[in-house]
Structure formats: structure tokens, C-alpha cells
Sequence to fold (292 residues):
Amino acid sequence: MNNGLVNAIIAYIMWGVLPLYWKLFNDVPAGEILSHRVVWSFVFMGILVAVQRRWSDMKRIAASRTILLPLAASGLLIAANWLIFIWAVNNGHIVETSLGYYLNPLLNVLLAVVFLREKPNRGQWLAIAIAGSAVLIIAIDYGRFPWVAISLAASFGLYGFAKKKIVQDASVGLLSETAVVLPIAIGYWIYLAAAGKTTAWTLPASTFVELLLSGVVTALPLLFFARAAARMALSALGFVQYIGPTIMLLLSIFVFKELVSPVLLVGFALIWTSLIVYAVASVRGTRLAKAS
Fold:
């Protein structure tokens, strides 16, 4: 559990600061950024798996439909999440991305209760209620249907659920996921070249090198997340996730100067209150379980 918690914290801190990275490519369309993200993630993970000498595991996955199909689903879900996130960041919707990842832990708890039969205790249910109220307040104050937030929460929540159902090494699993969407990414490259719409390849050399590093930037937090998902309850993992959107919210206020209403700040305070309540309830629950 402790090892899982450390991995989760590292992953969510990395994801929290990602808007700073994607802002480097404001002039590149989101779909093109996504295609590069997929290709270079596959290259990076391929090198990593080769160093680990795990290619035999890839052959085993390719030959097993029961393993390959869930990995294909998780690959498509995370690719959809990446596309929405990149588009939102580069079109001035960082506050809404933050809201989406605030929604995600609630979805994680719902999935855990319904499908994994996890049973939160009373204190944890109280934390969930506080967080749900905060998200509702934020959504009402936002003034319109937050489709970006809902899409991000749904895609990443289902991805986390899929990862809980897949018993696979983190490196091999991530390489398999990127392999699923790799043909789509390369096909999109071919389309852009044929249509004369390529943007990324015309970037200054230094910026293009930064784009090449998107494989590392993408893969590292996902590796930490996969290790955390294998060691933590899905509901607990969801609440640690508040680290990421909190960092995003602070970036939107102090770095990107997006307008944030006082109501949103109240919601922010309520969410952190729920996180503290959840942590205390979890510790008490663990102690009672050991005592019995």
C-alpha cells in the first residue's frame, strides 16, 4: 500500500504540471500532438522493454485474445483522454480540465463499489459526499455543461478501472496499449503529409526535440500510475488523484491567468476537506481491521 501510495503521488504530481509542457506546442493542432505522443511513447517503451528483455511477454500478449482485448480497450481510452486534455489545455480550458480530474475520483469510487465490491466506511462515505457537493457547486458556478470535464473524467476513470482488471507488468502493458493506437497515429501522419497540413515537422529544432520527449513525458507518469493501480484500492487511488487537478488549478490561476470565481475557490477548499476526512477515515479503518 505504501509503495502504491508513493507511486500514485509521483504520477499525479507529474500529471499536474503537464499543462506547462503542452503549452510549448500551442501552434500545433491537438490531433497532431496526440499522434506524436503515441509514436514517441511507443518508441520509448519499446526501448525500455528491450532493455528489460521482456519482448517474450509481448509475444504472449499478442497470442492471447483474453489479454489483448482489455489492453486494446485501455489503449483507446487513454488515447481519447490525451486528445481531450491536449485540446483543452491549448484552447484555454485548464480550469475545466482541473474540474474533470476532480470528478474522476468520484467515478472511481462508484466503479469500485459497483464492480469491484469495495465497501467504503462511514467516514469515507462522508468524504465522498463532501467532494460530490463541492463538484456540484463548481459545475453550477461554471454556467454551462462541462463536456471537457465529463469526458476527461469518464475516459480516465474507465482507464483506471481497466488497469485494475489487467494483471500485467507496467512496462509491457503500456507498450501494448500504445501499440494498439500506433497504426492510427501513423495513418494520421500519412494523411497530414498527403494533405500538406503537417505542422510539427516545421517546428524549430529545439521545439521539435521537446516534442520528441513527449514519449518520456507521457510514459513515466503512466508507469507510476500502473504500479499504484496494482497496489491500491481503486477508491483510495481516486482520492490521491486530487493532487493533479489541484496543481492544474493553481497553474490556471497564477501562471495562465484564467479567471477563477470565489465559488470555485470554495469548492476547492471543500474538496481538500474531503481529502483530509477520507485520509483520516482510511487510517482509522486500517487500525480497526488490524485490531480485530
Summary: The chain has 13 helices and no strands. The first helix runs from residue 2 to 22. The chain has a mean pLDDT of 87.
